[in-house]
Structures are given as structure tokens and as C-alpha cells.
Amino acid sequence: MPFLIIIAIIIFVFMGTPVIFKQKRIGKNQKLFTIFKFRTMDNEKITFLGRILRKLGIDELPQLFNIIKGEMSLVGPRPLTEYDIKRLRWDSNYYKNRWKVKPGITGMAQLSKICNVKISWFYDKYYVNHRSLCLNLKILTKSIFIPFLGKKKQTIK
Q: Tens of pLDDT along 77-91?
């Protein structure tokens, strides 16, 4: 908690208010919820401070409040906006299993260096069908090192 307060003060000093970015996302059972993140943009551009926060994953830390509220978990598919779901065409019955689990701060698709709709769907589907404590620990361990080592070709099985 003190770390979050320090980051909030730094954002306030360098970027002003609001410190927290809020956005509607779709969660488990396609329920709408408000996600919290540290603000990293100004006038639709990523700021210098925002770039650092994103690279280190610090911008995601306010999502711990979403976990406390029961809307998210540490590991799971990325929480998407309604716009993203329509853009990706993931609103059909074919994709319904994705919404059976809580979205996560990190997940298999977020670890992939390649950002691709088919790869994201593959990882989300794999996670939903094979989730376990062991898989979650593997994902969390790899996620911890991303800010320091960068994203590399990930194989988690």
C-alpha cells in the first residue's frame, strides 16, 4: 500500500489529476466492471513517466483493488472492453468458455511477444481448459521477470 501511495504522489506531481484511470471492462460471465490502472497518458499520448510505469507493469497495480472486490484474479485472460470484444469478433458462442473465469492482471497471452488475435485466443482457451495452481505459478513467475528481461517466446505447459 505505501508503494501505491508513492506512485500516486509521483503521478500527481508530474501529471496532475486524475491519478487513476478507470475503464469499463468485461469480466467473468461477461459481467461489466470498472478496472483501475495508474494513468499513463496525457492528451492520448503515453507520457515519459507512463512509459516507465508500463514497462515495469506498475500501471497495473491498482487492479489489486479489483482482485479484492472479486472482479479479477492475479492470473487469467486479459479483461477486454466491449469494443475489443466486437472488434475481435469474440462475442459469439464459440468464445463463451473464455468468460467462465475471472480476468487476470497477467496471463499467458500477455506473456507472448507476438500480439495476434489467433495466438491470444489459443492462450486464453488453453488457460481456461488447463488452469491449475501449477500453471498459475508458472505464469506469475514468468510475469515477474518481464520488466527486466523483456518478452521472449514463451512456452508455458
A: 999 999 999 999 898
Grid cell listed for 119: 495466438
Q: Quick check: 33 and 27 in contact, CB under 8 A? A: yes
Closest alpha carbon to 75 in 152, 29, 134: 134
* The C-alpha cell that represents 4 in the structure block: 501505491
28 assigned to some structural domain: yes
Note the pLDDT tens digit of each residue in 53-79.
Answer: 988 888 999 999 999 999 999 999 999
Residue 82 lies in a domain: yes
CA 139 to chain centre: 13
* Structural domain range at position 28: 2-149
Residue 115 CA to residue 84 CA, distance in Å, equals 14
Joined together, the cell numbers standing for residue 47 give: 507520457
Tell me how many domains the chain contains. 1
Count how many residues are written for the chain.
157
- Residue 118 in domain: yes
- Domain contains 37: yes
- Residue-averaged pLDDT of the chain: 90
| Pairwise CA distance, residues 103 & 4, whole Å | 21
